[in-house]
Design brief:
InterPro entries: Transposase_DDE. The protein has about 130 residues and is mostly helical. The protein contains 8 helices and no strands. Helix 1 crosses helix 2.
Length: about 130
């Protein structure tokens, strides 16, 4: 496994060796440590029980982003701003569309591999 994937893992999923590696990185690169903790605290928002608590936690999370790291979180902040209603409705219903998105991706792959299937042929393949 490549060390850079340590940053993608949740803190609770790190092995002891990965935790040591992360600790060394954070000790030597303060902004990396701040970014990693921001990532972790963002994911913690999804553990909230209600929409209101999640929204308050999100607003609090936004204020913790230092000015020198705003550029790194800008795409996420813009997506959250644009899809705020839809994203926070997750806390009302706890339903996601990951399965549907996965199927759509599979259909695109089949269509690309087939190079020009008609709609009827693509539907039959699927």
């Amino acid at each position: 496994m490549h060390d850079r994937f340590i940053l993608l893992k949740r803190k609770r999923e790190l092995s002891e060796m990965e935790q040591l590696t992360l600790d060394v990185w954070i000790k030597n690169h303060k902004s990396l440590g701040i970014a990693y903790e921001l990532k972790e605290s963002f994911f913690d928002i999804w553990d909230c029980k209600t929409r209101q608590i999640a929204f308050i936690k999100y607003e609090d999370w936004k204020t913790k982003i230092p000015a020198d790291l705003e550029y790194a979180f800008d795409p996420l902040l813009k997506a959250m701003q644009g899809w705020e209603k839809e994203i926070f409705s997750y806390f009302d219903h706890r339903i996601i569309n990951a399965y549907t998105e996965s199927l759509n991706n599979l259909i695109r792959v089949i269509n690309r591999l087939g190079r020009g299937y008609s709609f009827e042929a693509l539907r039959a393949k699927i």
